[in-house]
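User: Assemble these into one structure.

Assistant: Restating your components, then the assembled model:
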Amino acid sequence: MSTPTMKESEVDVLIIGAGPAGLMACNALARNGIKVRIIDQRSEKVAAGHADGIQPRTLEIFQSYGLADALFKDGAQLHTAAFYNPSSNGGIELTDRVPDVTAPTARYPFELTLHQGEIESIFLNSLRKFNIEVSRPVVPTSIKIIEEKVNDPSANAVQVVLQHNDGDQELEIVNTKYVIGADGAHSWVRKTLDIPMIGEQTNYIWGVVDLTPDTDFPDIRNRTAIHSNNGSCMIIPREGDKVRLYIQLDDKSGLITSTGRVDKQKATPELLLEIARKTLHPYTIQTPEVFEWWTIYIIGQRVASKFSVQERVFIVGDACHTHSPKAGQGMNASMGDSHNLAWKLAHVIKGSATKSLLHTYELERKKYAQDLIDFDKKFASLFSGKPRTEEHQDGVSHTEFLKIFQTFGGFTSGIGIHYADSIITQSQSQSTALNLKIGERLLPQVFMRAADTRPVEIQDLCPSDGRFKILVFMGNTSQKTVLERAHSVAEELGSLLSKFANGNVFLLFDILSISSAKKADVRYNHLPFLLRSHWSKALIDDTDATGKKGGDGYQSYGIDEMGGAVVIVRPDGYIGTIVPLDGISNVGSYFNSFIETE
Amino acid sequence: MSTPTMKESEVDVLIIGAGPAGLMACNALARNGIKVRIIDQRSEKVAAGHADGIQPRTLEIFQSYGLADALFKDGAQLHTAAFYNPSSNGGIELTDRVPDVTAPTARYPFELTLHQGEIESIFLNSLRKFNIEVSRPVVPTSIKIIEEKVNDPSANAVQVVLQHNDGDQELEIVNTKYVIGADGAHSWVRKTLDIPMIGEQTNYIWGVVDLTPDTDFPDIRNRTAIHSNNGSCMIIPREGDKVRLYIQLDDKSGLITSTGRVDKQKATPELLLEIARKTLHPYTIQTPEVFEWWTIYIIGQRVASKFSVQERVFIVGDACHTHSPKAGQGMNASMGDSHNLAWKLAHVIKGSATKSLLHTYELERKKYAQDLIDFDKKFASLFSGKPRTEEHQDGVSHTEFLKIFQTFGGFTSGIGIHYADSIITQSQSQSTALNLKIGERLLPQVFMRAADTRPVEIQDLCPSDGRFKILVFMGNTSQKTVLERAHSVAEELGSLLSKFANGNVFLLFDILSISSAKKADVRYNHLPFLLRSHWSKALIDDTDATGKKGGDGYQSYGIDEMGGAVVIVRPDGYIGTIVPLDGISNVGSYFNSFIETE
């Protein structure tokens, strides 16, 4: 019991840590109507530096929450990756320029960079619409899982004591159903709950400086990897005219102690820039009047042994995995964790899904974190290695480096994430929509609305609103028999879905129909109501009025026009399963495995 | 002299009327840093109904002020025009569906509809950033042009007395350099200054109702023209689920008096819908619980005999031209007037241009207004005419109607506007950039930024910021001789432009360079400073990293890669003149004809 002087409160989810991972979780839960609270030990959001790379898949995720425009407004876009290697006269020279993103299906074929503080602002602005502010500076002082309540989904099974650091150090007891630890690499939640990190530090030490460069280097606005005989350097353009330099530090830098640790006392941004200068030769770069931000770090590649305790406390982001920043994955993997977890928590809290749904969080995200680290090891080792030259025949060649860069393009872009089979990812009838891979995200595709021929991106019709999207590909409904089939499919589907959500189908499901009828003769209002519950839900696979957009959806999805398909998209945008039109009952079995029926 | 009790104030431009035309002018002037004030007799902005069609060129103009996103957010888009005609069984049937916009170069290939109040809100929000609010309810009571001051550009040559209708009817004297009368079809400014309207009323009488329809009509979300044996009707989809119906009224409607006037007493929206119902048969439409708005009008097609008095008082919008709403031109022509006038006023007020610049407003816009009315007469007569049937062999056939609809596509979209030769539109060297028509708007085209391969729409690099845009097409600067030519062109151009704006070239001019070098080998920093005053100003004509965007700019503009070209774009986005690289001195003669030199 609490002492009488302690304030006590209640919330469905308490999020500890208001960095990108915590804020993504908070925003997603709030959007799903969950009572959520978020605390942070810092008294203000991040002001400069820190992570800043947003990968193509993360852009799609932001867009699914209606937040991508804010990123596009100010972010820098990285379209081209340039590679520099030793030249014959002792300096470096341009070896190659290739697309920065190697993921042909990416909706946004570029990386975006934006200062972490701006990214946090985007979430903070969004949260204000839900009347949520971060409680800060506030730290947790204890956390307790109440064993006897763990199996009662409606119980506040976790008790956290908070300390408000903004005055008289007031303590507060929070009784909550769930806790999300989004408190970074040194996570208090993880440590308090004794979750070990598996993995190790590397010997690769890097310096980072943010500056507005005055330089004659021709690729200063591209993502540029420089392998020189005087060390390696990565250039990441940032918003406005800013640039971030990642600079490899070795023994010659004078910044490494005899025990292989970084001597942070000796380091200055001027010194880091001086090292970069040697790598950039014969190109020059001036010392700026101010360095916006700088740091030094040793690459650590570790994953937490588990991502939750009794599926009541979860850890996300840096709290459960750390890796090298140059692969540009950190913030993306972190926000991806929260995106994956939030809708599951929301369904369980609302009582629409069974608790087993929560188990899939660790299943899906721990494997991804491990894959990421395996990739990161390869990439970091190649990038830190010496370039291949006459003297160093065992060095890293450009061909080798480029191959890794491009082979892992799907992975580093986030586009290639593939979740393994589980209750929510059921590999069946893959051949019915050959190119929509079960476990991967829904491929972007432009369709036309049947009623007004307006081109729409299907991803935009599948927002992260917590609902499962049921895409019904009916074939050419301008043909009488096909239209009849659509009517019988709709009847079966409607009766089947009405078993869930007390029959209030549209609370849990959003239904889109995609006909292969043509704009000249389609009659959207001939469709059964379930397939056009609003006129904007009926789409066709045709070009727009100009003939320039759309028209190849069935083909690009690998769906046979005669056969049709039902595609179930999870609330986070990943394909849950695929069902043929003559096997509609499988839609029921899919949802029966984790959705509550009344 | 004023009486001692009267408040007296001073402003550079006083705008009378805060509808779309007045607000467009106000926003444009404020953005150009001009001291401007706007008054309106209404105590609030328009709440419903009124004009609501935004044409493709108007969308481009909004985008040039950074205001298009707000339109796209809520506006309905009209991509398809459908045509219904009498069917063999006494009702109507679908005859054809065609693209609603017939203007292949339109950046936005659709019309947009949005309630006039929302459009006014977009401007009002923008004006708040300049700390400008509409003074309302305020009416002008007298206007006086002070003859002896007219020729002194810096003098407040106009005196307007205002009456504040929000309390004690306070009077105020405003001393101003210029007045813009944007006070609608019954313009007080026009009447007070005795400017006659030329033209006449037609016999075409139309009813308008706004409603959210419950109907089985398949083209209710398309722009649909219905010619039935029971009258004509035009459907214009609007934002959300709303629709506007234009309904032809004839003698049978019971709403026309024996003298051919509308009997407004008898009219109700229910009655109008009842007439529409006969036209729509066999399709049905339910009577809604509420009609959002409705009206009845007689088409008047008139143009003011002049658009200014001594180039000190100007009239814009409905104050100087009225036409039928179904051609969807009203608001577009009105805002187009203001867009044309504002930058000219700004330059003259700032002293950078000679007063002769103002003369081009009437020259350009009066001709356009007259053309519009000529078109409108044809269109209104065809649309009001009987459909051709067995009995009516002299009726209007679909083929005939469609031909007019499409022939005038360039015109009705606003894309085809072509300003005649004048000091600011100098037809010379058209063959140097064959497809950039001098006097027409700059064709949209995607180029890549040389430094970071980011695709950019050239129209977005030519915002309505008051500056002339000088586009220098240099050819392939990866070739040494071509690069050398770029250096000498830049030198000549720089020395020539420095004669204007006291040598502060970038105050008056924005310079963009477009090389035909390829992304693989371009070196943006080899260009002379004038052609890359910021790294983002250097463009290349190549595809983006994915190969999907851009890459055909020289060709689509009709510019020879070897020859190059300099294209001068006026601050309103229209091509001012074209100059070959070996005739740079013509850039000087162009600006010398109206820009002040010190």
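Chain A has a mean pLDDT of 92.
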